[in-house]
């Protein structure tokens, strides 16, 4: 249990959800499954983000039921306590812990869920449950509904006949971060800044990409982080032009850049930061020119990421500055408007500029409203991550740019009338990046 974990935080999320629900609504959520890595070895358990958001519960084998119309609105089904099993599996809170520590109004062993669900669902018309995610759960629920309908024929009570994806309400809540979530994200961001700085200082000719990865992991864990919130990308030289390069097993070379996309997960919230730096500690002239184009685009896009603007407009600003820059440095030729309109720019900038960030690296929340990119509002957190990637065999590109991959990514909180760059502590200007790398030499 983390020191900063507070049950009031999760009950405040439940309250926000309850306020959106009616007396006829029930919400049923299941925890994440345990994933086998190989043989009998399991991946470290990562709770389901929705369940965690509403309960703070971090053990496997959990389901939660929320019914605003009930005397006891918050019911948890959790792994039962079993001292013999706990010798193997580790400590469990059990139903008593669920009530005492996690604020459940009622709590039962998970293995009683199927038997209890028919009665618990009676009296509700709308069930917020995500069908077609997991066949076993769907089957469990179908069985419960059949049984509830049979009972309803005798007792006349309502049985859910409308099924709604809980994401509709819940993911909208998760999109807007409260003060505690922002503090946690700031901590994740600060640890991420420390990790990138440590990796910059450890960079030199011959160092392996995985050495930087291990320094990043170490910094995250040492600072109380869970670890990386997604698999870290450490791409030296041409590896940086592979967007999802995660092998991280090549040596770094003087004269090359290294592109590092790594974010710390702290309190289950993750940062998502990319920096690109020269292995030697000094950008070449061509590298510096291309880097400055990406940096200008990123700063312009961050300035655009304010209340009232759209995420689409953030992308459009990034694309415009990048495209103008590509023309200026000779990567593209032609009219900027035309290169944007016919999407020629995508040859070197082929991904989006932003995504929501929070408990998930690609966090939940709708991007569109009535087919239009929605307006940014205070409490939203998004990434701003333009880049340029030139294939090493691109004979159309000036030779000096071939094989370069540059991305710069920060995490931005929308505030009233402006924004706050949560990851601003990670060096970013050419002078600051060079100074950080050189400080380790
Ligand atoms: N690190 C994943 C992303 O930038 O979207
Ligand atoms: Mn990233
Ligand atoms: Mn990202």
Characterise this structure.
The protein is of the alpha+beta class and 441 residues long. The protein has helices at 7-20, 49-55, 83-89, 94-100, 113-121, 135-155, 167-175, 179-201, 209-222, 285-304, 311-329, 336-341, 430-439, and strands at 25-30, 36-38, 41-42, 63-66, 74-78, 106-109, 126-128, 162-164, 227-228, 233-236, 257-262, 264-266, 269-270, 273-278, 368-369, 372-373, 381-384, 387-389, 405-407, 410-415, 418-421. The chain has a six-stranded mixed sheet, covered by helices on one side. The longest helix is centred in the middle third of the chain and has 23 residues, at 179-201. The site of one manganese (II) ion has 4 residues, from loops.
The chain-level mean pLDDT equals 97
In CATH, what is the homologous superfamily of the largest domain? Creatinase/methionine aminopeptidase superfamily
Mind telling me which CATH architecture of the largest domain this is? Alpha-Beta Complex
Q: Please state the overall shape, judged from the principal axes of the Cα atoms.
A: elongated
Q: Ligands bound here?
A: glycine, manganese (II) ion
- End-to-end gap: 39 Å
What structural class is derived from the secondary structure elements?
alpha+beta
Layout: helices, strands, pairs:
Layout: H1 7-20, E1 25-30, E2 36-38, E3 41-42, H2 49-55, E4 63-66, E5 74-78, H3 83-89, H4 94-100, E6 106-109, H5 113-121, E7 126-128, H6 135-155, E8 162-164, H7 167-175, H8 179-201, H9 209-222, E9 227-228, E10 233-236, E11 257-262, E12 264-266, E13 269-270, E14 273-278, H10 285-304, H11 311-329, H12 336-341, E15 368-369, E16 372-373, E17 381-384, E18 387-389, E19 405-407, E20 410-415, E21 418-421, H13 430-439
Parallel strand pairs: 1-7, 5-6, 7-8
Antiparallel strand pairs: 1-4, 2-3, 4-5, 9-12, 10-11, 11-14, 12-13, 15-16, 17-20, 18-19, 20-21
Helix pairs in contact: 1-2, 5-6, 8-9, 8-13, 10-11
Bound molecules: glycine and manganese (II) ion (2 copies).
One manganese (II) ion binds next to loops.
């Amino acid at each position: 249990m983390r020191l900063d974990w507070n049950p009031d935080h999760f009950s405040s999320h439940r309250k926000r959800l309850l306020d959106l629900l009616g007396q006829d609504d029930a919400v049923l959520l299941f925890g994440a499954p345990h994933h086998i890595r190989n043989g009998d070895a399991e991946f470290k358990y990562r709770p389901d983000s929705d369940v965690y958001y509403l309960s703070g519960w971090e053990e496997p084998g959990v389901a939660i039921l929320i019914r605003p119309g009930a005397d006891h609105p918050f019911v948890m089904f959790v792994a039962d306590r079993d001292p013999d099993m706990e010798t193997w599996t580790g400590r469990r809170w059990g139903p008593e812990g669920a009530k005492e520590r996690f604020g459940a109004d009622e709590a039962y062993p998970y293995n009683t869920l199927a038997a209890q669900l028919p009665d618990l669902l009676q009296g509700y018309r709308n069930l917020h449950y995500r069908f077609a995610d997991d066949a076993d759960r769907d089957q469990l629920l179908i069985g419960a509904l059949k049984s509830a309908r049979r009972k309803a024929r005798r007792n006349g009570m309502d049985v859910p006949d409308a099924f709604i994806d809980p994401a509709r309400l819940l993911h909208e809540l998760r999109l807007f971060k409260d003060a505690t979530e922002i503090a946690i994200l700031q901590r994740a961001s600060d640890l991420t800044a420390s990790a990138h700085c440590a990796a910059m200082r450890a960079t030199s000719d011959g160092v392996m990409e995985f050495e930087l990865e291990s320094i990043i992991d170490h910094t995250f864990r040492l600072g109380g982080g869970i670890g990386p919130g997604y698999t870290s990308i450490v791409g030296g030289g041409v590896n940086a032009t592979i967007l999802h390069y995660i092998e991280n097993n090549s040596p770094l070379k003087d004269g090359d850049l290294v592109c590092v996309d790594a974010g710390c997960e702290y309190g289950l919230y993750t940062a998502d930061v990319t920096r690109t730096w020269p292995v030697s500690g000094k950008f070449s002239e061509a590298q510096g020119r291309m880097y400055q184009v990406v940096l200008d685009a990123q700063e312009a896009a961050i300035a655009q990421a304010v209340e009232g603007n759209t995420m689409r407009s953030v992308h459009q600003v990034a694309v415009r500055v990048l495209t103008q820059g590509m023309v200026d440095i000779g990567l593209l030729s032609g009219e900027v408007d035309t290169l944007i309109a016919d999407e020629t720019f995508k040859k070197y900038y082929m991904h989006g500029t932003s995504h929501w960030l929070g408990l998930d690296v690609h966090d939940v929340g709708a991007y569109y409203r009535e087919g239009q990119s929605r307006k940014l509002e205070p409490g939203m957190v998004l990434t701003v991550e333009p880049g340029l990637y030139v294939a090493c065999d691109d004979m159309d590109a000036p030779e000096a740019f071939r094989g370069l991959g540059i991305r710069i990514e920060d995490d931005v909180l929308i505030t009233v009338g402006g924004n706050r760059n949560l990851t601003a502590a990670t060096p970013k200007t050419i002078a600051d990046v060079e100074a950080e790398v050189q400080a380790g030499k």
